[in-house]
Write a structure and sequence with these properties.
Length: about 400
């Protein structure tokens, strides 16, 4: 049964907050007439922190979102709780979240899940686990699919401010048992992937959707870690409209659509040259795979603080193990304090590496969780390396990122 405060909070959000938000970001929805009249399972691509609020403002019933409540600031977690969100540990399986999903659906609630598991760093829809299709078949609710365009460029995950442009939402509906004609729901999984697949930078530039922003480069140092000119690691700074390498002094300029201005960005290892920041991140990912295969010292980040759990008998708390250097040597992830190794994991032991909204990053290894504070350094680099290890088999086992 729905609790009164969830209905009341969503009503207040739609009346007081939604009109200004939808107007500010020029949100337009297509196929609203296809919204189910009964409870549904909402699935969407995810690239903006406002995604739950935008989608929840467009549909006509409260949506109970599965969300990473432990990784957000307390005020945001409290607001999410008021609109009925429930917790899911990001980066690993969470049976309690599954039980809560089944219970809410059985009680007649509409469920909202972002099946990528995390907001996109580069505007491209990442891998969707086939278990989402299996869950949809088990719930047997109409699937309301929302493919969003312009959400990423309205404010990229790494960005310091919002941009003006257009945000479009295309709705469609699938009936899971009508599509899942093979064992395990593979047909349904393929349809979900096909509909939600999206590259925001490519799509908005192709469709001539222009964005504006005074300082489009601000925050890009969180995304870009490898210089295309000299291949220096962690040498990128970004401010205003300029991207600079503090090692080789190369300079590039971009616009709010994340296109390089004046000429394409040439890399000595990239052909054809890069035209957008999306091309740069794809190149970084490819180079991460190559560096892993080459072995040896792969990359290092200094000034990282490691937090470990303690006091499990009376409830876990986080205690700093110190500040030092995080290093990747072949398939070994090591942490050094003043040159002494104090922590080490084989990539094959890691069950997840996630960044919690630029606040802290978590490493899951078996039942253990470790937290890393990068203190302004690039955490996305580490996600790219662990993802590369997952796909090329360097780690010896799969890593769920």
């Amino acid at each position: 049964m729905k609790t009164w405060y969830i209905d009341a909070t969503w009503s207040a959000v739609r009346a007081l907050f939604s009109p200004a938000m939808l107007s500010r970001y020029s949100v337009k929805a297509r196929c609203l007439e296809c919204l189910p009249g009964e409870p549904f399972l909402l699935l969407s691509n995810h690239s903006n922190e406002l995604d739950p609020w935008v989608l929840g403002s467009l549909v006509d019933r409260p949506v109970r979102y599965m969300a990473n409540l432990s990784g957000v600031a307390p005020l945001k977690a409290a607001m999410a709780f008021l609109v009925g969100a429930y917790g899911k540990v990001k980066g690993r399986r969470d049976r309690s979240a599954l039980r809560e999903t089944l219970a809410l659906a059985a009680a007649g609630e509409s469920i909202g899940i972002f099946p990528e598991g995390d907001r996109s760093w580069d505007g491209k829809t990442s891998g969707i686990d086939p278990s989402i299709a299996k869950l949809a078949i088990r719930l047997d609710l109409p699937i309301l699919l929302a493919r969003q365009k312009g959400a990423y460029l309205s404010r990229p995950r790494w960005a310091a401010s919002s941009r003006r442009g257009a945000w479009e939402v295309d709705f469609s509906v699938l009936r899971p048992k009508a599509i899942a004609n093979v064992a395990g729901g593979l047909d349904l999984h393929g349809r979900i992937v096909e509909i939600l697949a999206h590259d925001d930078i490519e799509a908005c530039n192709r469709d001539l959707i222009e964005f504006s922003c005074a300082n489009p480069a601000n925050g890009l140092h969180r995304l870009l870690w490898l210089c295309p000119a000299c291949e220096g690691h962690d040498t990128i700074t970004a401010r205003g409209i300029s991207i600079r390498c503090c090692e080789c002094k190369s300079i590039w300029t971009i616009d709010a659509n994340l296109r390089f201005r004046g000429s394409a960005l040439a890399s000595r290892r990239q052909s054809p040259p890069m035209c957008t920041v999306g091309d740069w991140t794809s190149w970084q990912s490819a180079r991460a795979k190559t560096l892993l295969l080459e072995g040896g010292m792969v990359t290092v980040t200094d000034g990282v603080e490691l937090l470990c759990r303690s006091g499990k008998e009376h409830g876990p708390s986080w205690v700093s193990a110190g500040t030092g250097s995080l290093a990747l040597r072949g398939a070994s992830l090591d942490f050094f304090i003043e040159g002494t190794k104090s922590f080490s994991l084989n990539l094959g032991e890691i069950g997840g590496f996630v960044d919690n909204f630029n606040r802290f990053s978590s490493i899951f290894a078996g039942r253990e969780e470790y937290r890393l504070l990068f203190n302004g350094a690039n955490a996305y680099k580490w996600q790219q390396f662990i993802s590369a290890a997952r796909t090329d088999g360097t780690s010896g086992s799969k890593v769920a990122v």
